[in-house]
Amino acid sequence: MFGSIGMPELVIILVIALIIFGPRKLPELGRSLGKSIGEFKKASNELRSTLEEEIRVEDQRDQRAILRAEQETAISGALPTTPAPPADETVTRTTGTGPVA
Predict the structure, then answer these.
(1) E-strand stretches of the chain
(2) SS3 category, 101
(3) Is the distance from CB of 10 to CB of 2 less than 8 angstroms?
(4) CB under 8 Å to 26, separation ≥6 — which residues?
(5) Cα–Cα distance between 25 and 78 in angstroms, integer?
């Protein structure tokens, strides 16, 4: 039930708490402990949902970036491109008409 704490240990702890705090304060302590545990669970659930939402948004952002890169690759692959000549070479172009005879 509580890991390594068995029923005899739990009874001893409750008896000691009853002796220390008395029968009038013990229910109040139990209620406040229960409220604290409830608030802790609520806060941890909110933190978990916030983290999951951030992870989901980041994944969507990554997927959009991948899709955008794929689209840019497809567009640039569809258009014929001519490689640029090296900077130290001169380019000579001919018109293809040749010498007139």
Answers:
(1) none
(2) coil
(3) yes
(4) 17, 18
(5) 79
